[in-house]
Amino acid sequence: MSVCCASAQLTFPSHTTTPRRVSARMSNQPPKPTTTTTSIFTSATKLLWGPSLPPGLLISTARTAWSTVWHLMMTQLAPSDSSGSYTRPTSQFRLNPTQFPSAASSELHLYVGLPCPWAHRTLIVRALKGLDDAVSVSVASPGQDGSWEFKDNTIPIRDKDKLIPGLDKANRCRNLKEVYKSRTGGYDGRCTVPMLWDSRKKDVVCNESYDIIEFFNTGLNELAKNPSLDLTPPELKGKIETWNRIVYPKVNNGVYRCGFAQSQEAYDRAVNELFSTLDEIEDHLGSNRYLCGERLTLADVCLFTTLIRFDPVYNILFKCTKKKLVEYPNLYGYLRDIYQIPGVAATCDIPAIMDGYYKTLFPLNASGIQPAISLSGHQDSLLIPHNRDSVGKAFVAQNAV
Ligand SMILES: N[C@@H](CCC(=O)N[C@@H](CS)C(=O)NCC(=O)O)C(=O)O
């Protein structure tokens, strides 16, 4: 099975840009009990133990069985170490920044899924650099068998450039596993998004998001509409690395360490590290428009894709509950600032994100029910003015894009 942003295999259901009801047949949820089955259960329990709770022995047996099954599922969903801390598996296809493939000899295609924060990074940098013509995209959605698959959504012609789940435009495969398998040399490992594919060589170029965004930022300038935008300017490389070393383990992966923890200790450690890092960033953003000062960098792109999922998903589903993002005025303004950079909003789809997480991470949300979220989690609220132009010495990075 595949999992959103994790390792194992639980997948996302299909989604659209607006919230909608998914029919029981189409969704990954178990069918709802009918009135007849509900009344059979009610009658059976009344017959067995009347209106009181089931006998203690039954409860403790069910509890042991339930928790064993939960641990088994979590082990596949999210491998952990002996202390119960989530350990993210490493990506198989990496890019060396000193040996980027040549743009002229490749035909690049990007595979993504909209709920995935790692894939989201690649969509943002592709949009900011103006690589939409140079790198085509297929948006995958989850299938019943647990792998990312491609669905025929018969996208209207006017929407053909929108990021909507659909068919595999590069290989006409039914699912991502088939694409990975068809690579020169074959493949039998984890089939994750984002995945960058070279249609000419019929091979995976890379399936590690940070490598892909570095490549998009500097390796394809001859094809980019905004070649002058540099999201890793040489003078900021040190700061970017410093922030990445903090933000990746404590925030990007930190929210997963909270949600996928398999012991109280592992959760406590993760949640404390997450919130002390958010407190630190909140302070920093009081006098810096972006993480590295006046310019938007790759470090911001990486932080942004976690922040936009925070109130609608991680705060609730992953128990990142000490605070909501909206309670951090600087972080929340920073989120809106980046969202309002031209090109970014079109890569964001909160209904698709919610659909993906709440309906497919079965061990964390067995009912599949999506919670109602407060206003701060809604996409429209990201259009509220951010008033951050004056924070620090504002070099308006988005003017360059
Ligand atoms: N380290 C990878 C993580 C990618 C990842 O975990 N993607 C998830 C979706 S959010 C996935 O495709 N999981 C499928 C699986 O694990 O089989 C990156 O940054 O690109």
Question: Can you offer a commentary on this structure?
Answer:
- Residues 233-362 form the GST C-terminal domain.
- This protein has 401 residues and is mainly α.
- Among the domains are: 35-67; 234-400, Glutathione S-transferase Yfyf (Class Pi), Chain A, domain 2.
- It has helices at 35-49, 56-77, 117-129, 176-181, 209-219, 237-252, 254-259, 264-284, 298-307, 310-317, 329-339, 350-360; strands at residues 108-112, 136-139, 141-142, 148-149, 195-198, 203-206.
- The longest helix has 22 residues, at 56-77.
- The chain is globular and about 75 Å long.
- Glutathione binds at residues 2-9, 91, 113, 116, 118, 190-194, 208-209.
Brief summary of the model shown:
Helices cover 37% and strands 5% of the residues. The protein contains twelve helices and six strands.
Oligomer: single chain
- Stated plainly, the CATH topology of the domain at 234-400 is called Glutathione S-transferase Yfyf (Class Pi), Chain A, domain 2
Strand content: 5-15%
Distance N to C terminus: 39 Å
Determine the number of helices (DSSP H or I, runs of at least 4 residues): 12
Q: What's the main sheet like?
A: 4 strands, mixed
Report the order of strands and helices: HHEHEEEHEEHHHHHHHH
User: Can you count the beta strands?
Assistant: 6
